[in-house]
Amino acid sequence: MEEAERKPLSGLAKAERLVDRLWAPLVSLTEVVGVHLQLLGRAGYWLAKPPFRVAVFLESAEFIGVQSLIIVAMVALFVGMVFALQLVSSLRQFGAESFVGATLGLSLTRELAPVFTAIVVAARAGAGMATELGSMRISEQIDALSTMAVNPIQYLVTPRVLAAIIMLPLLAMLFNCVGLAGGYGVAVWYEGVDRGVFLENARWIVDSRDVLQGLIKATVFGCALSTISCCQGFYASGGAKGVGQATTRAVVGSFVTILVLDYFLTDVILIVQSK
Question: What is the pLDDT of residue 2?
Answer without folding.
Answer: 47
